[in-house]
Specification:
Elements (H helix, E strand, L loop, with lengths): L5 H64 L1
């Protein structure tokens, strides 16, 4: 294999730097997607909990009303 010229070494170095930068950007994007998914999941969980609490509150009011009639 022939020796690399200075221009070839510089080009290789630039390509390696670009690859590292691209990999870092992909990692950041993956982390952002994961965080967004976790946020949506937390929101859904909170909404379900709120819905259950509303149902329980409705049952409580209904039971109190029935108890007063008795």
């Amino acid at each position: 294999m022939a020796q690399q010229t200075k221009a070839e070494r510089q080009a290789s170095g630039q390509k390696a730097a670009a690859t590292r930068q691209q990999n870092a950007a992909q990692d950041s994007a993956t982390e952002a997607k994961k965080a967004a998914g976790e946020a949506v999941e937390a929101l859904v969980t909170a909404a379900k909990a709120g819905g259950k609490a509303a149902v329980q509150a409705g049952k409580s009011v209904s039971n109190r009303a029935k108890a007063r009639k008795s």
